[in-house]
Amino acid sequence: MSIESLVAEYGLAALFAGAALEGEAAVIAGGLLAHQGLISLPGAAAAAAAGSFLADQGWFAVGRHFRHHRWVERLRGTAAFARAQEQLEKHPRSFIFVFRFLYGLRTVSPIAVGTTTISQRQFFAINLVAAIIWAIIFTGIGYLFGDAVEEFVGRLRHDTRLWWIVGGVVAAGLIVAAIHWWRGRGKP
């Protein structure tokens, strides 16, 4: 089942969960569904903001309360955590605001912030504003480009060559990911 069909079937609850777990693709799908009139645009943005905000608050709490747990300690050894820590040390408030826009740092960043001395209150305020702006941007993208996406999908339905190209790109991506995973397996 696709993200769009989940959001279409379960509405704002699926969009809330999608924003918390997956991120931009679910929120853009929510904007597309709002463009089609299946859900309201303000409702889509609110559900996306709430899902993103609450997920990040939860990850922050994990970092704050379980910073010495083996799972968090193991996470500290990853390259993504190191990048998050580096940016956090340079620009703490700015980083809290933008981490959700940075690919590969979305989940690890609030955990990294939680392991620092940044107050819960400060994280709460910046995270709230950032989640609202993020949700408006990505639901807006889905809403504004709804016609173009519908036209593109309409073409895909009728042109089997495009499906072969999409399948090839997906297969290549899976192969690259598998190679990357295989090479990283032996590293501590």
From TrEMBL:
The chain crosses the membrane at residues 41-62, 124-146, 162-182. PANTHER family: ALKALINE PHOSPHATASE LIKE PROTEIN, INNER MEMBRANE PROTEIN YOHD. This is Membrane protein DedA, SNARE-associated domain. InterPro entries: DedA_domain (IPR051311), VTT_dom (IPR032816). Residues 23-143 form the VTT domain. GO terms for cellular component: plasma membrane. The keyword DNA repair does not apply. Keywords: Membrane, Transmembrane, Transmembrane helix.
